[in-house]
Amino acid sequence: MRSVVVTGGSRGLGLGIAEGLAAAGFQVVAIARGIGGLAAARARVAESGCGALHFRACDLEDLAGLGPLVKRLRGEFGGFYGLVNNAGIGTGGILANMPDAAIERLVRLNVTSPMTLSKYMVRGMMSGDGGRIVNISSVVATTGYNGLSVYSATKSAFGGFTRSLARELGPLGITVNAVAPGFVETEMTHDLSPAQQAQIARRSALQRMPEVADVAGAVSFLFSNAARNITGTTITVDAGNTA
């Protein structure tokens, strides 16, 4: 059974992705910081009977700890076939009023951390039978959104990272892609009022907002054999909001 790491996998989009990959036959290690969130995720998985999904605690802000983390996980689960860089924060705010510390934290968690983790994960994948990396971006990386300038910039960084890393790793049989969700019903969109959510749905070609299962399905597809010749690209899952 091939093993995959999913970051931010204790709730919302990350947990949905982890459950989808486990259902597709992968052994999934979901890592997240919050112990409370991990306990709730374990209970949910126990009810579903999905035995191929494991949870481990890790603070992804601790960049120096990412190398040792990957070493520990390899010792416990063996080599890894894939990585989903999902963890991140969606801190909003007008740039002129945003504290410097908030800007730095957004860049650290949404850009530096996943790139650093990818570095250590890739080293082990290079000697295997290929692999898959999927970066979770956002439609605001290309459309922009009022009050999300820094967040949008961090997600835009995944575009160049995905395309260039795909070039680096392609000769080794490792694909690198991104999935850009629209506004999905998760904790990161709870600040949107019902009126704002209705407006987003009206602007969408399908007249609705995508769900976690839709994004998880796109990730599972990119991990499937049907996507073996897809790399360096971004799949948008937004119910046609940006069509």
SSE inventory with pairings:
Blueprint: E1 3-7, H1 12-23, E2 27-32, H2 35-48, E3 53-57, H3 66-77, E4 82-85, H4 100-125, E5 131-136, H5 140-143, H6 149-169, E6 174-181, H7 194-203, H8 212-222, E7 234-237
Parallel strand pairs: 1-2, 1-4, 2-3, 4-5, 5-6, 6-7
Helix pairs in contact: 1-8, 4-6
Can you tell me about this structure?
The protein is of the alpha/beta class and 243 residues long. It has one domain: Rossmann fold (3-Layer(aba) Sandwich), CATH 3.40.50.720. It has eight helices and seven strands. The chain has helices at residues 12-23, 35-48, 66-77, 100-125, 140-143, 149-169, 194-203, 212-222, and strands at 3-7, 27-32, 53-57, 82-85, 131-136, 174-181, 234-237. The protein has a seven-stranded parallel β-sheet with strand order 3-2-1-4-5-6-7, with helices on both faces. Helix 4 links the parallel strand 4 (82-85) and strand 5. Helix 1 (12-23) crosses helix 8 and helix 4 (100-125) runs parallel beside helix 6 (149-169). The chain is globular and about 50 Å long. The mean pLDDT is 91.
